[in-house]
Amino acid sequence: MPDLSGKVAIVTGAGRGIGREHALALAAAGAKVVVNDLGGSLAGEGADQAPAAQVVAEIEALGGDAVANAENVADFAGAERMVRHAIDALGGLDILVNNAGIIRDRMLVNMDEAEWDAVVNVHLKGHFAPTRHAAAYWRERSKAGDTVRARVINTSSPSGVFGNVGQANYGSAKAGIAALTLIAAQELGRYGVTVNCIAPNARTRMTEQAFGEIAAPEEGFDPMDPGNMAPVVVALCADEAQDITGQVFHIWGGAVNALQGWTSGELFQHDEGWDSDALLAAMLERFPDGAAPEGMAAGMQKAGGQSLRA
Q: Which of 44, 103, 163, 258 has the most C-beta neighbours closer than 10 Å?
């Protein structure tokens, strides 16, 4: 395990599921951890400080150092207070793991404005706001002459990188997070900050809501164990990973695939420009059976995973 001693990490949505595993693994590697969790329902309603407090107690029982934080990551000022909490309570900030999220699944023709706004706000703005304030802190340190080896780990989803029916709001936000990762990696590299992203597959409250209960195997390796995601995060947080940035890792069990999205595909070239009739004819010739998205199941299988519906 990489040695993260002396580093301070924030993990959002760390009270349960994947976020909890991230927090525990970072603490086991030596990092001090801010365990952020609003404690709301899957739909983002209500609040409960108990989940974050429980994870803090688990870390402390193992000899680690952690504090609980209940800020709403989608609140710009709240995200700034969370970053300041890490600096004031634990002495700085080196790692930000953006993990918090909610779901309000519905087919596009039935989705209302509130369901769209709530999910996009928590996921996409809830990644932007903490990253924005953490980045300002790291830029300030870098300009002061400090050597910065900081990390941002974002959380996308197979729904965001492959597309999934019934999740227009969630998938759009998760696709935006992948794009935010690429842009932030390019902008923040000059300050010593790497920005990467995971697209995890794991048994959580969210997957049970979307796909039903997924039973663990009676024996042997469990590819849906949320703990399978944490080693990727810890590895990316190591000082030795300073040159790995702007990547989106799809994770299924022991398969970790560095995805490459929106690469060059079918090129339609005409030196003097196209007219619509000629372009349509070329498209029909190139796509005699039509062209359509493969969908999440096929995308996951190609990436070394398995559809949660299988």
A: 103
